[in-house]
């Protein structure tokens, strides 16, 4: 009886690429702030083109995410590490449930993954005016919809940014309609883990009647409470990419 052929050992270049990728991931994970391509190239002692190719591969697998301030750990790496996402979910879930009961509208919690917004928690209200298709794991571009706009509003102003981002920066919340889901409007407030860095947004959805000041204040209040709890846990040593 012939034995099945064993897989050949990986070639040396493949092993070297894997080693570099793992070291790069570790450098980003251990940083308290986003790192630029130039900074990563310097820390790795590698040419920028090599580091860029490694980053692209890590981004394809959502292990690394790129923000306007540099590279941070992606949601998949965070989930594998059982740190950031479970902590955010644990903090947000009861608050989002209370918000939904308070305003009578479907409420959800969205986190940032590079240039995408990802729904982490969603609590639907059983009424035709508030049921939505936002479900945990849903993704959409950060520049579309009020959750992403709210998160971007926490950052310094950029030349050519959407007017909605500037308005959200001034008011403390963002509102959009028909951008991610046809016929649906949303209002969102950012969860700011550190000055200039929003990691998530608290949102409510509506279909017909635009929410009034009490409901908007409820969104802002929920975002403030989650922000306070998040910063409290971070002060005890919890790890969150991009936090100073």
Could you characterize what this model shows?
- α1 (12-30) crosses α3, α2 crosses α3 (48-60) and α5 packs antiparallel against α8.
- A six-stranded antiparallel β-sheet has the order 5-4-3-8-7-6.
- With 244 residues, the protein is α+β, with helices and mostly antiparallel strands.
- The longest helix has 22 residues, at 213-234.
- Helices cover 43% and strands 20% of the residues.
- The protein has eight helices and eight strands, in the order αααββααβββααβββα.
Q: What would you give as the CATH superfamily of the largest domain?
A: GAF domain
Number of helices: 8
- Read across the widest sheet, the strand sequence of neighbours is 5-4-3-8-7-6
Could you give the distance between the termini? 62 Å
Number of domains: 2
Apparent shape: elongated
What would CATH call the architecture of the largest domain? 2-Layer Sandwich
In N-to-C order, the SSE pattern is: HHHEEHHEEEHHEEEH
Low-confidence stretches: 1-8, 237-244
CATH topology name of the largest domain, in short, is Beta-Lactamase
Major sheet: 6 strands, antiparallel
Specify the helix fraction band.
Answer: 40-55%
Give the tally of β-strands.
Answer: 8
Helical/strand content category: alpha+beta
State the name of the first-level CATH class of the largest domain: Alpha Beta
Radius of gyration, in Å, reads 20 Å
Strand content: 15-25%
Which tags fit this structure?
244 residues, alpha+beta, 2 domains, disordered N terminus, disordered C terminus
Topology:
Elements: H1 12-30, H2 37-44, H3 48-60, E1 64-67, E2 70-73, H4 75-81, H5 84-103, E3 107-113, E4 116-123, E5 139-141, H6 146-152, H7 163-171, E6 174-177, E7 185-194, E8 197-206, H8 213-234
Antiparallel strand pairs: 1-2, 3-4, 3-8, 4-5, 6-7, 7-8
């Amino acid at each position: 009886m012939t034995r099945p052929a064993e897989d050949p050992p990986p070639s040396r270049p493949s092993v070297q690429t894997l080693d570099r990728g793992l070291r790069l991931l570790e450098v980003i994970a251990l940083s308290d702030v986003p790192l630029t391509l130039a900074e990563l190239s310097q820390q790795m002692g590698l040419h920028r083109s090599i580091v860029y190719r490694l980053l692209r591969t890590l981004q394809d697998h959502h292990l690394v995410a790129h923000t306007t301030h540099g590279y941070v750990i992606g949601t998949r790496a965070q989930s594998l590490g059982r740190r950031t996402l479970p902590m955010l979910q644990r903090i947000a879930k009861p608050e989002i449930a209370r918000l939904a009961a308070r305003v009578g509208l479907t409420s959800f919690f969205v986190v940032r993954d590079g240039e995408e917004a990802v729904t982490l928690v969603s609590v639907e209200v059983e009424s035709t005016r508030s049921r939505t298709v936002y479900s945990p794991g849903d993704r959409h571009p950060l520049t579309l919809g009020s959750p992403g706009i709210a998160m971007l509003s926490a950052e310094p102003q950029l030349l050519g940014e959407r007017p909605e981002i500037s308005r959200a920066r001034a008011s403390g919340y963002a509102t959009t309609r028909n951008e991610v889901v046809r016929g649906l409007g949303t209002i969102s407030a950012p969860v700011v883990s550190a000055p200039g860095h929003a990691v998530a947004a608290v949102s409510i959805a509506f279909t017909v009647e635009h929410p009034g000041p009490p409901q908007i204040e409820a969104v802002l209040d929920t975002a403030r409470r989650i922000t306070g709890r998040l910063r409290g846990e971070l002060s005890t040593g919890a790890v969150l990419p991009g936090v100073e």
